[in-house]
Design brief:
alpha/beta, 44% helix, 3-stranded antiparallel sheet, 325 residues, disordered N terminus, 7-stranded mixed sheet
Amino acid sequence: MGKIGEMSEGFVVVDGSPTISVVLVVKDEESIAQSLTELRPQLEQFGAPCIVVDASQGRLQHIEREFDWVTWIEFDQPLGRRYTISHQRNIGVRASTTNLVAFCDAGGRPGSDWLLHLLDACGKAEVVCGPVLSLDQPPRPAVNLIEDDTPVYLVCSANMALHRSAFDKIGGFNEALDHAEDIDFGWRVLEAGFKVEPVPAAIMYMRWGDYKEQRRRNYRYGRSMPILWAEHPNRVFEYWRRYPDSIFYSSWIVVAPLAALLCLVSPLFPSAWLALLIIPIAKNRRSQRPFENLISKLTYGWGSIRTIPRALGVLLGLRPNRHGR
């Protein structure tokens, strides 16, 4: 692991060169303009190059022209692929010339000294993650808001930095995944024997969008999880223990036909099935939108169910899903 050198004329250097780049991937998010504006002072402080990998097919050229100090890479989506986040992240890292790379999502707003805190933490671990706090009203739950010395279980690339050596060792992000490629990346980093540590002071703020956008996001992530479990079967039960919602809602939906059929025997069966939802409603009773949250989680469960056949194919080795395997 490279050692970060002293500050020299406002730049953090290793062997005389800036040591970190910041990569953003974008498709049609106009909010990247605000991210770049707020990132610039910190980038200039450390002489950090900024790379944007853009899949908008020219729709963001007006922003590219405005931020001419950014290295802007036009990305052509592969035929048949709608989501290419992992492809773009890999291109951004491989285009960098520094031994450390940080990620910020389009729309992310870095907190004070965000980059400084990530740089400092990279002297202790190969991959580090800061918390992502919601700017929505009411606010969404924070991501990776965990204390020092608590291992990061789910990597979030909206606020992450890594050593290029770790990235190269595991082959980068899994381009077969549409979503949750950062969670898969973090698990493979751990499997390779590297450290993944939290950086509580490196705060990133994010506006996640309205209820409709959150529901779409939950569906996409629901679809991704069975694939991840098939790729990492040794982590399935630990994941379910930490996040029981990930299996509760899909199981509740799967039981629906049986509950309807048992109605012929006794109305108590479908009543008991419906009553199970009292648990999550009670759990989220203090939420300002408990029923919206419930629908979003059921959407997550439905997404998971729809991907089970593909996940079984991956688990049984009948179809590839990682790096052409």
